[in-house]
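thoughts on both lines:
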Amino acid sequence: MTTQDLDAFAAWVEALMRDRGYDIDSPRGGGKSRIADEAGVHRAAVTRLLQRQSMPDLETTRRLARVLGVPVRDMLIRSGRLTAEELSDPHDYLAAPAPSAEFGRRPTLEEVADLLGVPADRREMFVRVVEQFLPTEAEAAGPPGPGREEGRVLAEAAAGTSAAD
């Protein structure tokens, strides 16, 4: 990381802080303390960033992003820690037109976990939880309603017959 990178990142964060109403220019440092408190970070971390002394660690960056209302992805890219390619946006992947039949298929839950950055040690749990919310093959074939089993039962009840007769 160069001093230019740090300076550019700090200037961007300063502008965000000012835009969000933090008085970071006060000699008493009230705005710096307020943002540090709201983010749950030490005031010194905010001060070191604004004075271009050091880049915040990953957890501080994540917390500042939340308070400033910007995606952590943007913070990491602007800080120079990672590139846009290294942090490809899963929305880009899902919104991009399918170049072939292979890409036109629905991604597997493992692929979705990878796109979302789910850590490897939590993937199995991610897949199990998400599967609970996905429809079964029978449910996916068509919505339940009067045209299906419920409709048959209602029609039999109205006619006074049933499959058991």
Summary: The radius of gyration is 26 Å. The chain is about 60% helix and 0% strand. The mean pLDDT is 79. The CA atoms of residues 65 and 72 lie 6 Å apart.
